[in-house]
Design goal:
The complex is a heterodimer of chains A (about 375) and B (about 1200).
Chain A: H1 64-91, E1 94-98, H2 112-117, E2 124-130, E3 139-145, H3 153-157, H4 161-165, H5 193-196, E4 202-207, E5 210-212, E6 214-215, H6 222-228, H7 259-265, E7 273-280, E8 289-295, E9 307-312, H8 322-348, H9 360-363
Antiparallel strand pairs in A: 1-9, 2-8, 3-7, 3-9, 4-5, 4-8, 6-7
Helix pairs in contact in A: 1-8
Chain B: H1 2-15, H2 29-32, E1 41-45, H3 72-83, H4 87-98, H5 108-141, E2 144-148, E3 154-158, E4 167-171, E5 179-185, E6 191-195, H6 197-200, E7 205-209, E8 228-232, E9 244-248, E10 251-255, E11 260-261, E12 266-268, E13 272-279, H7 285-289, H8 299-332, E14 334-335, E15 338-339, H9 358-372, H10 381-398, E16 412-413, E17 425-431, E18 437-448, E19 451-453, H11 459-468, H12 474-492, H13 516-528, E20 533-536, E21 543-546, H14 550-562, E22 564-569, E23 573-579, E24 586-597, E25 605-611, E26 617-623, H15 625-628, H16 640-652, E27 655-665, H17 667-682, H18 687-699, E28 704-715, H19 719-728, E29 732-736, H20 741-750, E30 759-763, H21 768-776, H22 779-803, E31 812-817, H23 818-824, H24 830-839, E32 842-846, H25 850-864, E33 867-872, H26 878-883, E34 886-890, H27 897-900, E35 904-906, H28 912-950, H29 962-972, H30 974-983, H31 989-994, H32 1000-1003, H33 1010-1035, H34 1049-1071, H35 1077-1099, H36 1102-1105, H37 1111-1116, H38 1120-1147, H39 1151-1160, H40 1167-1177, H41 1185-1204
Parallel strand pairs in B: 17-29, 17-33, 29-32, 30-31, 31-32, 33-34, 34-35
Antiparallel strand pairs in B: 1-8, 2-3, 2-4, 4-13, 5-11, 5-13, 6-7, 6-12, 8-9, 9-10, 14-15, 16-35, 18-19, 18-28, 20-21, 22-23, 23-24, 24-25, 25-26, 26-27, 27-28
């Protein structure tokens, strides 16, 4: 609004406040309360602890007591937990056999890629391993791949959940390119790079010439079997023609029972990963000699990945990984040290109470001039 | 009978100063334009329905008004457009659209969903606000007014149905529904009184008068046959001009603003008027005038924008780095026909991953990455801030300590976007009257015929007495100040506006005084020379007055109390009851009111010309001393010296003075004046004012001095205390007032803005040389000399300051008057002036015009680049309020203008300390912590995504499930932040006021400095790194549970996400030190909600939940690994921050932390200790009573040491 300025610089009105008519004009935004009859109810704010921001509150500050207590408690809790984790982790027996290089015969060591891609070469290789400590069943068999990007976006997206679950959506191969259709335009089930690149090395075990049964049941998560892979969906046109990626699937077994596929398709988070291959249900005693026959089919040579075969037991905390226990111990230890340091600090250098010379603007008085 | 009346009226209107324009001026240039461009409006009065001619009228706007921003049709596009003007929102819109392409790292719905929530919430808010406006519009449009329906029938109709040309009847105390042409009123001569408070904030009544030709249209029936045509200017925004002509019968009559009744003003003191609708709806002048107030944004928000741009930079950098790696890796995949990562089929791929075109793939990847790392930008930040600010405003409005019982007015934060700015105010520019001082004037003293009367002691005198009194009882004095004010107003409580005690002239005793006739003239003048209107209370017979200004009311009341009761005003006369001292009876005297020479700020005086019952013509004049003494006749200077002395004393005591003088005119002289005056009055051009002034100037000469009046302008309750608090908080206070220097200085003393021993640097142009030049009248020379003088005074002041720099105890005050300010605000000098002013402890600008107030505000704002707050209550402060970073309006008694242009309205100045030191401090702290925290939580989350990319060959695959990603900001981390923004308190209100220096945290902006922002961001990066590495290392390869299954992407993602949710929520718990139930519920609730959500989401069909299907119920919850990893990662992540803040709290506490310590250690009751802390916080040159006390103590100490020596 253009304002005409009051002629008197200080022009006031005596005794108007009680008489002044209610402001009802609303041309411009005004006080919202200007009801036609403002006198009827007082505009006095109601008192409540909430509206006056006086709610009872817990106002902790980081006093020496709190700080020391916190660090001590963290230390006291962390160290036992760390010890327990570490102990459990150490109780796990684990054997790791790298075989991608071992299974290359001398003549192929120079041209590994050719070797692996050639369907005619014999890829069976045998290795043996002597049990150092007793392994309690179940003994889990893993294969471990390194430098394998199952978490690549192209790879992760290259599947079709509908097709995997629902036999009616057989033709739905969205996202699966280039492994969506065969050359004669038949839909591939299961489609996509992920299924196509299914790991296809196999292992056979024998102890003292008795072959060991490998249990491949229940190596995947139950929800995957029940809700993600259909029990009426059968592999079709899988790994036929074109470039063959990995393992072939038995077309008579529904996807929900193809546990190798299910495990493989639960993608790994990081480029080094283990996946469960199967379980050995018998104990392995010390000095048992385990002979392992490996079909070294899977091509990791091309991208420089490593392959390992892992035999491991498990405990409540899972497999063998001392990191967590060590980290717990480390952080717990650091906390205790912190607690001690703080105790010393508070003893040696008591705070000059309320010394405002710490205030940033007092340090630099020029600011306030 | 009829002709007789007309005759009389003719006669009177010749005499009356408001005589309407006569036909003679009709040939005036302006009027010749009617019908031409810009003057094309044609109004056919009283033509309704079916008339052919009304087609001309048809296309004028109807009388409904719309103040809403949107209509139902435009709401969607317009408000969406508003929303996406924000960079962040626009960014999210673009990424949302891109999410529908193949580029997206996640599914489109999850990307667009949070945006919809955020934009939707803001739009709902807009919609509600607009709906409120709509309701107001409906209310206004449906008000009812009587309108002529033909055949003399007037019926009620809604305002919105009014059409141009309608005849309406408006009754007493009703608003005018449109701009009306005044035809006739309940008064014979078609005058009416109008209150224009809603237009200009002035509370005085204005007189409007219809044309003589239409003034006889009295009864309803007389409109049966009435037809007229008005031709006038097109709608425009000028409230004070109107050009048009009325064709009535065969004659044309000119129209002026005098006949125009503006919409939104109100009919007062008149039973009814008839008017013709000229401008309707949006054509009315008041609506043409309404512009949106300047939209203000707070400093923090502006800085926040910069931080967001900074985050965008990081975002682009990360995307760019990622794309480079992606380029290298993708290119590597295919080397001369042999594939590397064959499982990705680089030989047969889309452009996004094509190793043959790695550059294109990288470019596309960059877009993907921008989408993925978008979590760096807190999408819900703006909407959260808006919610928080609205809630904060509600708290401000609800504060019972800022509620003013007497006026029933709570504080009212009219805009919520400046809350935190309240915590950063560096300089307060305050109006004086009505803000620092009460709106009430009391007649306390007068000097008549050189004798001083009046024994009342003013507040300022009391204050001065205290100042001079013993310093020991000072504390007590300060404490008792508000009480004494109450006492004086309540104790006597006799007559408002009158605090005059002197038995010499009261109760008729004045007849015995030596100059009884002068005294009689004196009070008679007070009773006649004014523009007040008496209002008789019919029950009690008491008379009250409506006056233009409270001093004027005080005069009339004083005259009444002495025995000269002004009782009646008509158009042409003023009647008084005079107490005849001889008989003791009341005698009615009627004075013919011949002319009123109105007051304005340049004339600084007003006069009336009256004819008394004996036929003598008098000119009665009252005005400021500066203009009056030079108009005194040689033979009228009998008491001049004495009076001047008294005036000086009064001014010293903080009183406003006016000089009263009169003059008898002989008939010839008056006739000559009258002719000239009415001629000048009839001019319609801009020259009119100057002409009138010239003529008035001529007659207001050779006056005979009667005496002077002194009126007290009372300090408001609690003002000195409040100023003291603000000063202790390190806020500079400038007073900008229209008062004269002496009054201003006195008020300064009363408010402790000035104190004894403070060096006053006074800049003025009252030096003899300049005065001499002024007499010569050479304007150029005056300007030159004045500028020179101001410049010199400023540099002298600066030199003084520099000289005293060594001894820090010396405080300076700068006092400058309006005249000098004109030059001091010149482009060349203003920086020097500002520099000088900043170095002074207090600054008082007196005699400043409203425009100067605004200019000074702008100078301080732009010169210091600090936050300025202007506080004022009157229409003359509007410029200042709008110019300042924050305008605080006092919702006092002087109209609504200041409040309407303010950002926050409070009822009393004394609430300012609470508003700033408590609410301002809290809001500043809340908002800045909240924003920092927002950045922290988003960086923590966003950076884990980036780190994961490093391990996913930068392919753009997110670590978390799509929907989890998108609702992070909306569900798992928003409520605790909002609780932080609304409820957090570092220290309670009591301590905020007890340790005002806390406020400096805001002024110095320590809580939102780049250092702090970057520290929080760094904290975010550290948290992200710790979470990511600990989680991945702990779950890397080995079996995840005793069943031997390993952790896939789903499990690692969910575990990391759990850690992030825990960490950011515990981080906020660590950062705040104020836990009510609300905080507990929000913080722990957010964490609990994460688990609940994970359960519910995991239970949905895998088609929707994808890899989060059953992830918690089946895999995470049964695994001890998950729980101990979470526990470990969460605690470890918080340890760095915890250690940092423990050290900082103990060894480098900020001021609020010191206060927290004091509270914690229970030392608040230890006065010495508190004093010590507070003392440290005092700056040596501060103002306010505490500082004054300290200065006195210093003085004493110095003196005793000298004595000892």
């Amino acid at each position: 609004m253009i304002v005409r300025l009051s002629e008197f610089d200080n022009c006031f009105y005596v005794g108007r406040e009680h008489k002044s008519p209610p402001l009802t004009n609303k041309m411009m935004e005004m006080e919202p309360q200007s009801a036609p009859t403002p006198k009827k109810h007082s505009k006095k704010p109601k008192y409540s602890k909430f509206s006056q921001q006086e709610l009872p509150a817990w106002k902790p500050i980081l006093t020496p007591g709190w700080v020391i207590a916190t660090f001590t408690v963290v230390g006291i809790v962390f160290i036992p937990v760390g010890l327990a984790s570490l102990f459990s982790s150490e109780s796990v027996e684990e054997a790791s056999i790298r075989y991608d290089d071992q299974c290359l015969t001398e003549m192929h060591s120079e041209n590994a890629v050719e070797f692996i891609q050639n369907g005619l070469t014999n890829k069976t290789c045998t290795t043996s391993w002597i049990v150092e400590r007793r392994m309690q069943a179940p003994i889990f068999i893993y294969y471990q791949l390194d430098n394998y990007y199952q978490n690549h976006r192209r790879y992760v997206k290259s599947r079709n959940d509908k097709q995997l679950m629902n036999p009616a959506s057989e033709g739905d191969t969205t996202n699966c390119y280039p492994q969506d259709k065969t050359n004669d335009s038949m839909p591939i089930v299961p489609c996509g790079l992920m299924a196509w690149s299914l790991f296809n090395d196999t292992y056979r075990f024998s102890v003292n010439t008795n072959s060991l049964a490998v249990n491949k049941k229940d190596i995947s998560w139950g929800s995957d079997r029940s809700s993600k892979f259909g029990s009426k969906v059968y592999p079709k046109n899988f790994q036929v023609g074109g470039v063959v990626g990995g393992a072939k699937l038995d077309e008579n077994i529904p996807l929900s029972q193809q546990e190798d596929l299910i495990v493989w398709m639960r993608t790994a988070a990081l480029p080094s990963f283990r996946k469960l291959y199967g379980k050995i249900e018998t104990n392995l005693e010390v000095n048992d000699e385990v002979e392992i026959v490996i079909e070294n089919n899977y091509n990791t040579y091309e991208f420089g990945g490593k392959k390992r075969l892992i035999l491991s037991t498990s405990t409540w905390i899972g497999g063998k990984n001392p990191f967590l226990g060590m980290a717990y111990l480390f952080v717990g230890g650091v906390s205790l040290v912190c607690a001690i340091v703080f105790i010393l600090l508070y003893v040696i250098k008591p705070r000059p109470l309320g010394d405002p010379s710490y205030l940033s603007w007092n340090k630099n008085p020029g600011l306030l001039k | 009978m009829r002709s007789g009346r007309r005759k009389r009226k003719l006669h009177l209107s010749k005499l009356y100063s408001f005589t309407c324009c006569r036909a003679s001026s009709f040939e005036d240039e302006l009027y010749s334009q009617i019908g031409g461009r810009g003057y094309s409006r044609v109004v056919l009065c009283n033509e309704h329905g079916g008339n052919l001619e009304s087609e001309v009228v048809r296309d004028y706007a109807d009388n409904s008004v719309r103040s809403t921003k949107y209509t139902p049709a435009t709401f969607l596009p317009k408000s969406l457009f508003e929303q996406f003007r924000r960079v962040a929102n626009f960014y999210f819109l673009v990424t949302g659209i891109l999410a529908f392409t193949k580029l997206a790292p996640f599914n489109a719905a999850s990307a667009i969903f949070p945006l919809i929530i955020v934009v939707g919430a803001t739009m709902v808010k807009e919609g509600i606000e607009d709906w409120r406006r709509k309701k107001q519009d409906i209310e206004v449009n449906n008000r009812r007014v009587k309108v002529h329906k033909g055949d003399g029938n007037f019926e009620y109709t809604e305002w919105k149905n009014l059409r141009v040309g309608n005849i309406v009847k408006v009754e007493k105390d009703e608003f005018f529904p449109a701009d009306l042409l005044l035809l006739s009123s309940s008064y014979e001569d078609a005058v009416c009184y109008v209150e224009t408070m809603n237009l200009d904030g002035e509370t005085n009544l204005k007189l409007k008068q219809g044309l003589e030709i239409t003034s006889s249209l009295h009864g309803n029936l007389s409109f049966q046959k009435f037809r007229a045509t008005v031709k006038c200017e097109d709608p425009n925004a000028n409230l004070y001009s109107f050009v048009g002509s009325l064709e009535f019968g065969d004659q044309k009559y000119p129209l002026s603003p005098q006949q125009l009744l503006l919409r939104d003003s109100k009919l007062r003191n008149t039973d009814y008027i008839f008017g013709a609708v000229i401008f309707t709806g949006h054509d009315t002048k008041v609506i043409q005038n309404s512009t949106d107030p300047p939209s203000k944004r707070s400093r923090i928000e502006r800085k926040m924008d910069r931080v967001i741009y900074f985050l965008f930079c990081i975002l682009f950098l990360m995307a760019f780095v990622g794309s480079i790696f992606f380029y290298i890796l993708t290119k590597d995949d295919l080397q001369g026909g042999s594939m590397k990562r064959w499982y990705l089929r680089p030989d047969d791929t889309t452009v996004f991953f094509d190793p043959k075109r790695p550059a294109a793939a990288a470019a596309f990847h960059c877009l993907t990455a921008l989408m993925l790392y978008g979590f760096f930008i807190p999408i819900s930040l703006y909407v959260s801030i808006e919610i928080v600010k609205v809630l904060q405003s509600i708290f401000i409005n609800q504060d019972i300590h800022m509620y003013y019982e007497q006026a029933d007015k709570p504080a009212n934060a009219r805009t919520s976007n400046l809350n935190e700015e309240l915590g950063q105010v560096d300089t307060i520019l305050s109006d004086k009257t009505g803000t620092l001082t009460c709106n009430s004037m009391e007649f306390v003293k007068c000097s008549i015929a050189g004798v001083a009367y009046g024994r009342g002691i003013t507040e300022v005198e009391k204050a001065m007495g205290k100042r001079k009194g013993s310093p020991l009882n000072h504390e007590q004095v300060i404490g008792s100040e508000p009480n004494s004010i109450n006492e004086s107003s309540n104790g006597k409580a006799s007559i408002k506006g009158f605090n005059f005690i002197d038995e010499r002239i009261m109760n008729g005793n004045w007849v015995n005084e030596p100059h009884a006739d002068v005294i009689r003239r004196f009070f008679r003048l007070l009773a006649i020379c004014h523009t007040a209107i008496p209002e008789m209370d019919e029950d009690t017979g008491n008379v009250s007055y409506e006056a233009e200004s409270p001093d004027e009311a005080a005069f009339v009341i004083a005259a009444r109390e002495i025995g000269f009761e002004f009782c009646k005003r008509t158009q042409t006369s003023v009647s008084t009851f005079e107490l005849d001292p001889v008989s003791g009876k009341k005698v009615e005297r009627v004075y013919k009111l011949l002319n009123v020479l109105e007051f304005n700020s340049s004339r600084k005086r007003m006069s009336v010309i009256v004819e008394d019952e004996e036929g003598k013509i008098f000119l009665l004049c009252k005005g400021a001393d500066s203009v009056m003494f030079e108009r005194i006749a040689k033979n009228g200077r009998e008491f001049q010296d004495k009076t001047m002395e008294h005036v000086h004393d009064y001014a010293d005591a903080g009183l406003r003075t006016l000089i009263l003088a009169y003059r008898e005119l002989d008939v010839e002289e008056y006739k000559e004046f009258r002719n000239k005056f009415s001629k000048a009055k009839n001019l319609v051009c801009a020259d009119q004012e100057r002409q009138i002034e010239k003529i008035s100037n001529k007659i207001e000469r050779n006056l005979i001095l009667l005496g002077a009046t002194a009126v007290e302008d009372k300090l408001q309750n609690g003002v000195p205390d409040c100023i003291d608090k603000l000063a202790q908080a390190g806020i500079k206070i400038w007073v900008l007032t229209g008062d004269k220097m002496e009054t201003a200085i006195n008020i300064g003393f009363a408010c402790s803005l000035l104190r004894q021993g403070m060096k006053q640097i006074i800049i003025h142009l009252e030096s003899p040389e300049i005065k001499a030049l002024e007499k010569d009248g050479d304007k150029l020379a005056i300007i030159k000399a004045s500028r020179q003088s101001v410049l010199q005074q400023i540099s002298e002041g600066a030199a003084q300051l520099t000289a005293y720099r060594g001894s820090s105890q010396q405080a300076f005050a700068l006092i400058i008057d309006g005249k000098s300010l004109v030059y001091a605000l010149d482009d060349n000098i203003k920086n020097m002036f500002l520099e000088l002013a900043i170095r002074c402890a207090s600054v008082i600008c007196c005699r400043s015009s409203p425009k100067q107030k605004a200019l000074v505000t702008r100078l301080v704002k732009s010169g210091t680049r600090k936050t300025t707050l202007a506080i004022g209550d009157g229409a003359n402060d509007v410029g200042m309020l709008q110019e300042a970073d924050i305008g605080v309006g006092i919702s006092g008694v002087e109209g609504m203008q200041a409040v309407m242009s303010s950002d926050i309205a409070i009822a009393q100045f004394r609430y300012l300390d609470r508003l700033l030191l408590v609410h301002g401090h809290w809001c500043y702290r809340r908002i800045s912590s909240m924003i920092c925290y927002f950045f922290y939580k988003n960086i923590t989350f966003g950076f884990t995504l980036f780190l994961y990319e490093v391990y996913a060959s930068f392919s753009g695959e997110p670590a978390y499930n799509d929907w989890l990603l998108s609702i992070y900001n909306v569900f798992f981390s928003s409520l605790p932040v909002i609780a932080l923004g609304v409820f957090d308190q570092d220290v309670s209100a009591r301590y905020c006021l007890k340790f005002p220096l806390l406020y400096q945290e805001g002024v110095q902006n320590v809580l939102f400095s780049w250092r702090r922002i970057l520290s929080w961001m760094l904290n975010g990066f550290i948290s992200a790194i710790i979470i990511f590495f600990f989680c991945t290392k702990a779950m890397e390869l080995q079996a995840f549970d005793s069943e031997g299954r390993t952790a896939g992407r789903d499990i690692l993602g969910a575990t990391m996400y759990t850690c992030v949710v825990w960490v950011v929520n515990l981080q906020i718990a660590l950062a705040i030190s104020y836990f009510t139930m609300i905080q507990h519920i929000f913080i722990w609730g957010s964490i609990a909600f994460w688990y609940i959500f994970l359960l519910v989401y995991g239970a949905m069909s895998p088609h929707f939940s994808t890899n989060a299907y059953q992830v918690f119920a089946e895999t995470l919850a049964p695994s001890p690994m998950y729980w101990i990893v979470t526990f470990f990662v969460v605690i470890s992540t918080l340890i760095p921050y915890f250690s940092y803040s423990a050290i900082q709290m103990r060894f480098f506490p900020m001021f609020h932390e010191i206060v927290q310590w004091i509270r914690y250690e229970g030392k608040t009751k230890d006065p010495e200790y508190c004093h010590m802390v507070r003392q440290r916080s005092l700056r040596p040159t501060t103002v306010g009573s505490t500082a004054r006390l300290a200065a006195m103590a210093n003085d004493r100490r110095d003196r005793t040491t000298i004595n000892r020596r």
